[in-house]
């Protein structure tokens, strides 16, 4: 597999579609453990005069445990044929499964950042800030917060602890070359 490196300002796909329809695998590595988690709650833009991504990860997720100890992570985008892989990685815990092995994914590294060779895109990201949302951060909409927070974390994204927001600079994007 070969990839071309593109700068974030050269990226020309619809990020709303990528996040909402394609989803990402957020993948970090710590002490040799590579763990991917499906992320569909994210945003991209400019912050602190840098191209950034902000990903929401609940504190109970194994990915939070791994990503909190890593300096970098990747966000990978796959073709539609990998939808079941994304579903598995979004509903199963890395505490209980070796998701890389279970999904038949191939780990590669860009510098020290893991990504998957099956991906059509890999955003290589360096953490700048991690901030936890709190109940008092939400402005007067208890119906909203009670839907998304509290109780058990469920597959539809509802329930669970208040997200940690991982704000990371997009250092580069790897785009799979046409074969």
CATH class: Mainly Beta
Which percent range describes the beta-strand content?
35-45%
Would you list the SSEs in sequence order as H and E?
A: EHEEEEHEHHEEEHE
Which structural class should the secondary elements be placed in? alpha+beta
Average pLDDT over all residues: 92
Q: Percent helix among the residues?
A: 10-25%
Under the CATH scheme, the architecture is Roll
Q: Using DSSP, what is the number of strands? A: 10
Question: Could you please describe the fold and organization of this structure?
Answer:
- With 179 residues, this protein is an alpha+beta fold.
- It has one domain: Electron Transport, Fmn-binding Protein, Chain A (Pnp Oxidase, Chain A, Roll).
- It contains 5 helices and 10 strands; from the N terminus they run E-H-E-E-E-E-H-E-H-H-E-E-E-H-E.
- Strands 1, 2, 3, 4, 5, 6, 9 and 10 form an 8-stranded antiparallel β-sheet that branches. A two-stranded antiparallel sheet has the order 7-8.
- Strand 2 (24-30) and strand 3 form a beta hairpin.
- The longest helix is centred in the middle third of the chain and has 9 residues, at 83-91.
- The radius of gyration is 16 Å and the shape is globular.
- It starts with a strand and ends with a strand.
Compile the SSE list and pairings.
Layout: E1 3-6, H1 15-22, E2 24-30, E3 33-39, E4 42-47, E5 50-57, H2 62-67, E6 72-77, H3 83-91, H4 99-103, E7 107-110, E8 113-116, E9 121-132, H5 142-148, E10 164-176
Summarize the structure.
The protein is built from 5 helices and 10 strands, in the order E-H-E-E-E-E-H-E-H-H-E-E-E-H-E. It has 179 residues and is α+β, with helices and mostly antiparallel strands. A hairpin with a 2-residue loop joins strand 4 and strand 5 (50-57).
């Amino acid at each position: 597999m070969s990839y071309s490196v593109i700068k974030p300002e050269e990226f020309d796909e619809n990020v709303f579609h990528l996040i909402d329809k394609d989803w990402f695998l957020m993948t970090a590595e710590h002490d040799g453990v590579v763990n991917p988690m499906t992320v569909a709650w994210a945003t991209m833009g400019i912050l602190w005069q840098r191209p950034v991504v902000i990903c929401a990860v609940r504190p109970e997720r194994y990915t939070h445990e791994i990503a909190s100890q890593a300096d970098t992570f990747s966000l990978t985008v796959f073709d539609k044929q990998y939808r079941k892989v994304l579903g598995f990685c979004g509903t199963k815990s890395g505490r209980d499964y070796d998701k890389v092995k279970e999904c038949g994914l191939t780990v590669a590294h860009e510098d020290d950042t893991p990504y998957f060779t099956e991906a059509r895109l890999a955003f290589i990201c360096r953490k700048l800030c991690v901030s936890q949302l709190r109940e008092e951060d939400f402005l007067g909409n208890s119906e909203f917060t009670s839907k998304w927070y509290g109780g058990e974390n469920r597959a539809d994204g509802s329930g669970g602890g208040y997200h940690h927001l991982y704000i990371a600079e997009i250092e580069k994007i790897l785009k799979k070359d046409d074969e």
